[in-house]
From TrEMBL:
It comes from the Bacteria. Belongs to the azoreductase type 1 family. Pfam families: Flavodoxin_2 (PF02525). Homodimer. Its EC number is 1.6.5.-, 1.7.1.17. InterPro entries: Flavodoxin_fold, Flavoprotein-like_sf, FMN-dep_NADH:Q_OxRdtase_AzoR1, NADH:quinone_OxRdtase_FMN_depd. Gene3D superfamilies: 3.40.50.360. Keywords: Flavoprotein, FMN, NAD, Oxidoreductase. Its cofactor is FMN. This is FMN dependent NADH:quinone oxidoreductase. The keyword Transmembrane does not apply. It catalyses: 2 a quinone + NADH + H(+) = 2 a 1,4-benzosemiquinone + NAD(+); N,N-dimethyl-1,4-phenylenediamine + anthranilate + 2 NAD(+) = 2-(4-dimethylaminophenyl)diazenylbenzoate + 2 NADH + 2 H(+). Residues 4-197 form the Flavodoxin-like fold domain. The lineage of its organism: Bacteria, Pseudomonadati, Pseudomonadota, Gammaproteobacteria, Oceanospirillales. It comes from Vreelandella sulfidaeris.
Amino acid sequence: MATRALIITSSILAENGQSNALANRFIEQANARDNIEVTQRDVVKNALPHLDINELGAWQLAATERNAEQQSLAARSETLLAELRANDVLVIAVPMYNLGIPSQLKAWFDRVLRAGETFRYTENGPQGLVEGKRAIILAARGGQYAGTEMDSQTPHLKAMLGLMGIKDTHVVYAEGLNMGEQHRDAALKEAFQAIDQLVEGL
Ligand SMILES: Cc1cc2nc3c(=O)[nH]c(=O)nc-3n(C[C@H](O)[C@H](O)[C@H](O)COP(=O)(O)O)c2cc1C
């Protein structure tokens, strides 16, 4: 059976986005194999609004009790949850913006990180409900932050994935992309090689 990969892209720079270049490399390599099916969701092109009280309220109602507006609000999250559940591997292509993730990507996480759906609270703390999936993070950054205290992005992403139960997460970094052409080319080359290896292992 084919491995299904959901790739989330989140650069605001469209075809000039370096994280999109990493995502495209993944897609290109995956499409060259017949055992991987890729679904792409661009959370910038299909941007979600900030989560608000009306949408949260719609989740709290039984489907039969929702009015038309509440149904369409609840459908946002339901569509994304179904897409997540239908895939085996979650690939997140993420630029670093102001030391964090793009707010559009946070809006996606706000729709899939739902108590009672993807995790639940128990006496022993939260328990992830998403089983048997792994994640790959493709991280593009202008500077160099991996492994330093300034990198709050990777721990944040791993914590959100871990909360859902996705604990097998691999990070590919393309760092120092704004530190000169030579540096950028070397970082991208290394990241592409890492992506090729990961796709081969799927
Ligand atoms: C609004 C904005 C904020 C940024 N903040 C950071 C930052 O905090 N740290 C960093 O290393 N690079 C930062 N950068 C540089 C990006 O991480 C870098 O250009 C990377 O290639 C962005 O990925 P993208 O090209 O896929 O959008 C920032 C870029 C933009 C546009």
